[in-house]
Design a protein that fits this description.
The structure holds two protein chains of two kinds.
Chain A lengths: L5 H9 L6 E7 L8 H11 L3 E6 L9 H13 L3 H8 L2 H4 L4 E5 L1 H7 L1 H10 L4 E3 L5 H7 L1 H6 L3 E2 L2 E2 L5 H10 L4 E4 L13 H12 L6 E4 L5 H10 L2 E4 L1 H9 L3 H13 L2
Parallel strand pairs in A: 1-2, 1-9, 2-3, 3-4, 4-5, 6-7, 7-8, 8-9
Helix pairs in contact in A: 2-14, 13-14
Chain B lengths: L9 E2 L2 E2 L8 H16 L1 H15 L5 E3 L1 H7 L2 E6 L9 H14 L4 E6 L3 H13 L2 E7 H6 L1 H9 L3 E5 L6 H14 L4 E4 L9 H9 L1 H14 L6 E5 L4 H7 L9 E9 L10 H4 L1 E5 L2 E5 L24 H8 L3 E7 H15 L5 H8 L11 E6 L7 H7 L3
Parallel strand pairs in B: 4-14, 5-6, 5-8, 6-7, 9-10, 9-14, 10-13
Antiparallel strand pairs in B: 1-2, 3-4, 11-12
Helix pairs in contact in B: 2-4, 4-5, 4-9, 5-7, 9-11, 10-11, 14-15
Classes of the chains: A alpha/beta, B alpha/beta.
Chain lengths: 264, 393
C-alpha cells in the first residue's frame, strides 16, 4: 500500500461523497492498560473513520462523569503519555485511518511541547485537540512547532461562540472544526433539541472554509444521523466509553457499537 | 519589576486564561468589564459601605505585646478574623457579588475547601437575595460539618464533589463544569487569587483592602506607612495577595509567604507548592503546582483545609520566581503550636491557616525595632475539633 502522509489522511475524509464521518473517542488505558492498539484496530475494522485517543488527566474540566471516570481508571491502571507514545509505535503498521490525540495541556507541557509534537509526528498522528489551550495562546506560542511536525490543531466552538469568533477560528484552523453541540461538558444529555438544530443551521449558513464535525451529546444512530444532516460527521465519546464498560467481549462490543451508530 | 498583570493577564510568565472554548464568552465578558465595573465610583461607594457596615471594616491592626516580647520585635496582627463570617474571604465575595449584579447574573456558584469561602459566598447571596450553589469535596464536607450546616442555614445548596480526590481541587473542577453547563445566567465566585484571568487580579484587588488599611493604621500607630515584614499564609494565596498588595513594589518590605508543609516537606503529605511543585497549568492559569512527572495533579495534604490546594495563584508564582517574596513553610505540628501559643499569649484563637503564618515567627530572626505585620486571616472556631484532637495545650 502506498504510504500516505499523515497530513493527507484527514484531508482525504472531506473528499468523500457520502460524508457521514464517524469519529470515535476512547481513553488510552481504559478499560485496561494495554488495549489502545487493539481498540483502535477494532474500530477501524468496524467502520470508524477517525479515531480520537484521549490522553488521561487527573482534572479533566471539560468532561462529564463518564469520561472523567475513564480518565481516573486509566491513570490508576498506570497510563502515562510516555507509555501511550510507546503504544502508538505499532499504529503505523496497523492503523490507516487518521488518529487524533485529545487531552489537557498540562501533561503535554510536562512531556515537553516540542518533544510531544515530534513524537506525535513520528507516529503518524494527524492532529490534536487540547481543550484548555486557547486559540490565541496556541497561535502565539505553539503553532510553529505543531506545523513543523504536520499536526493539525483542532479548535472547539460552541453555541455561545459568536459568528465573528467562529470565522476567526475558521481562519486559523487547518483541518476541521469541532462543533460542541450544546453549552455543556461531554456526555451530559441525550437527543438533539430544536435549539441545537438552529445552531447547526447557523454554522452551515456561515459557509466556513473548513468542515465541522459535531460532538458532545451524540450517542446513537438517531443523533448521529441528525448531526450528519448538518455536518460532515460526528464525534462520539461517552457513549462509546459506556459501551466499552459494558462489553463482555471487547471486539464484539466495539463492532456492535459502531454498527449500531452507523445503522448497519 | 512589575507585580501587576500585563494586558494578556500575565504576571511575568505566570497567569493567562487556559480555559476551554466553552468558557470563553464568560471569561471574555468578565475580562472586558471587570475593571470598568470596579473602578466606577458608584460601585466603590457600595463596596466600601458594605465593607464598613456589613463586614465591620476596617479590621483592627493590633499590637500584640506579649508576642512581640517573645520574638524581640514589634508584631502587629491584622485582625481579618474579626470580619463578619470570621475570615478575609468575605472581602472578595462582597466585591464579586456586586460585579455579578452589574453583569446581570441571577445565580452564583462557588467552590470551597474548608468552607470559609463557601460560607462567605452563601452569606452575600443571602444578603443580595441570589441563588447560591456551593461545590465542596465530599471528603471536606465530612471534616467541616459545621460550615456545611452554616451554608445551608444561609440558604445555599451544598453539592458534594465526588470526582477525583473529592477535595478542593475537585470542587473547583465541578464548579467550572457547572459554569460550562450554565454559561449565561451564572457567575462563578472563585474564592482565591487562582483561576483564569481576570480572576487572580480581580480577587487581589478586592483583597487589597487589607494592605490599604495596614498602611493607614501603621501610619497612625507608628508614623510610617510600611512595615519591615508582612507575613501571611498561602494556600491559593488570597489573604497574602491582599496583605502584600500595596507593598509589592516597596523593596523595604520583606514579604513572607508561608505554605503548609503538612506532615513534613518530604513526607508525601504536604501542600508546600513552591517547594514541591513546578510550572504547569491548573484551573486556567499557568502557575506552579504539585504534579507527577507525567503532569497529573498531585493531591496535597495539610491539617488546614484552607491551605490544602495543589497550586498557588499566578501572582505568587511570580513573587516566588522573581525572589520578591520569601516562601517558607510550617508543618501541621508547628502550626498547631503557634495557634496555641497565640491563644495563650494574646487571647486570640487563630484559624489553623493563619497559625501557619504565625509559625514563621519561630523561623525568622528579627532585630529589636523590626516592625512585623502578621495577617491573621481567620478565626479558629471552625478548627476547635482539630485543636482538641491534635493540640497539646
Amino acid at each position: 500500500m502506498e504510504k500516505i502522509s499523515s497530513t493527507d489522511k484527514l484531508a482525504s475524509l472531506w473528499h468523500r461523497e457520502a460524508g457521514e464521518i464517524l469519529s470515535v473517542y476512547f481513553t488510552a488505558g481504559y478499560p485496561k492498560l494495554h488495549q489502545t492498539s487493539e481498540i483502535a484496530a477494532k474500530l477501524q475494522e468496524s467502520g470508524a473513520d477517525l479515531i480520537e485517543i484521549g490522553m488521561p488527566y487527573s482534572d479533566p474540566v471539560a468532561d462529564g462523569p463518564t469520561i472523567q471516570q475513564s480518565n481516573q481508571v486509566a491513570l490508576e491502571n498506570g497510563m502515562t503519555l510516555e507509555l501511550l507514545m510507546e503504544q502508538l509505535l505499532s499504529f503505523e503498521q496497523n492503523i490507516s485511518i487518521p488518529v487524533i490525540l485529545m487531552g489537557y495541556f498540562n501533561p503535554i507541557l510536562q512531556y515537553g511541547v516540542e518533544r510531544f509534537c515530534q513524537h506525535c509526528g513520528e507516529r503518524g498522528v494527524s492532529g490534536l485537540i487540547i481543550p484548555d489551550l486557547p486559540v490565541q495562546e496556541y497561535l502565539d506560542h505553539y503553532q510553529q512547532v505543531f506545523q513543523e511536525f504536520n499536526l493539525h490543531n483542532i479548535f472547539l466552538i460552541t453555541p455561545q461562540t459568536s459568528d465573528q469568533r467562529i470565522r476567526w477560528i475558521d481562519r486559523h484552523s487547518s483541518s476541521f472544526i469541532y462543533a460542541v453541540s450544546d453549552a455543556s461538558i461531554t456526555g451530559a444529555r441525550s437527543g438533539i433539541s430544536e435549539r441545537q438544530e438552529a445552531y447547526f443551521k447557523r454554522l452551515q449558513s456561515l459557509d466556513l472554509q473548513h468542515p465541522f464535525l459535531i460532538g458532545f451529546g451524540i450517542s446513537d444512530n438517531e443523533t448521529f444521523r441528525k448531526a450528519c444532516q448538518y455536518a460532515k460527521g460526528a464525534i462520539i465519546g461517552s457513549a462509546f466509553i459506556n459501551a466499552l464498560k459494558e462489553a463482555d467481549e471487547l471486539g464484539d462490543g466495539i463492532e456492535n457499537f459502531v454498527h449500531s451508530i452507523k445503522g448497519l | 519589576m512589575s507585580f501587576s498583570i500585563d494586558k494578556n493577564g500575565y504576571y511575568g510568565s505566570f497567569g493567562g486564561a487556559f480555559i476551554p472554548e466553552m468558557l470563553y464568552p464568560n471569561i471574555e465578558e468578565l475580562g472586558n468589564s471587570y475593571l470598568e465595573i470596579i473602578q466606577d465610583p458608584v460601585f466603590q461607594d457600595k463596596f466600601r459601605s458594605l465593607l464598613k457596615d456589613y463586614v465591620g471594616r476596617p479590621s483592627p491592626l493590633f499590637l500584640a505585646e506579649r508576642l512581640s516580647n517573645k520574638y524581640g520585635c514589634k508584631i502587629y496582627l491584622k485582625r481579618e478574623d474579626l470580619n463578619h463570617t470570621g475570615a478575609h474571604k468575605v472581602n472578595n465575595t462582597i466585591g464579586q457579588i456586586l460585579v455579578a449584579q452589574k453583569l446581570g447574573k441571577q445565580k452564583i456558584i462557588a467552590e470551597t475547601g474548608a468552607g470559609q469561602h463557601g460560607v462567605a459566598t452563601a452569606t452575600v447571596c443571602a444578603l443580595m437575595g441570589m441563588e447560591c450553589i456551593v461545590y465542596m469535596g465530599e471528603v471536606d464536607m465530612a471534616r467541616q460539618r459545621p460550615n456545611v450546616e452554616r451554608m445551608k442555614l444561609l440558604g445555599a445548596e451544598v453539592r458534594p464533589a465526588t470526582s477525583g480526590s473529592r477535595t478542593l481541587k475537585d470542587a473547583t473542577n465541578e464548579a467550572l463544569r457547572h459554569w460550562i453547563n450554565h454559561p449565561v445566567d451564572t457567575h462563578y465566585i472563585i474564592g482565591s487569587v487562582v483561576g483564569p484571568h481576570p480572576y487572580p487580579d480581580m480577587v487581589t484587588r478586592f483583597q487589597s483592602i487589607i494592605s490599604e488599611e495596614i498602611k493607614q493604621q501603621l501610619k497612625e500607630h507608628e508614623g510610617r506607612e510600611y512595615p519591615d515584614y508582612v507575613i501571611a499564609c498561602v494556600g491559593g494565596g488570597s489573604n497574602a495577595a491582599g496583605a502584600f498588595y500595596h507593598f509589592n513594589e516597596n523593596d523595604q518590605v520583606r514579604l513572607i509567604a508561608v505554605e503548609a508543609a503538612g506532615q513534613g516537606l518530604s513526607s508525601g503529605h504536604s501542600a508546600a507548592t513552591t517547594n514541591l511543585g513546578k510550572r504547569g497549568v491548573l484551573h486556567g492559569s499557568m502557575t506552579i503546582l504539585m504534579q507527577t512527572t507525567d503532569g497529573q495533579v498531585v493531591e496535597p495534604y495539610s491539617i488546614s483545609a484552607g491551605l490544602d490546594y495543589p497550586g498557588i495563584g499566578p501572582l505568587h508564582a511570580h513573587l516566588f520566581e522573581s525572589g520578591r517574596a520569601s516562601f517558607m513553610s510550617a508543618t501541621d505540628q508547628q502550626a498547631l503550636e503557634a495557634g496555641i501559643r497565640l491563644s495563650k499569649l494574646e487571647g486570640i484563637i487563630p484559624a489553623l491557616e493563619s497559625a501557619h503564618a504565625l509559625a514563621a515567627l519561630e523561623q525568622l530572626e528579627f532585630v529589636g525595632n523590626d516592625l512585623v505585620v502578621v495577617n491573621l486571616s481567620g478565626r479558629g472556631d471552625k478548627d476547635l475539633e482539630t485543636y482538641i484532637e491534635k493540640g497539646k495545650y
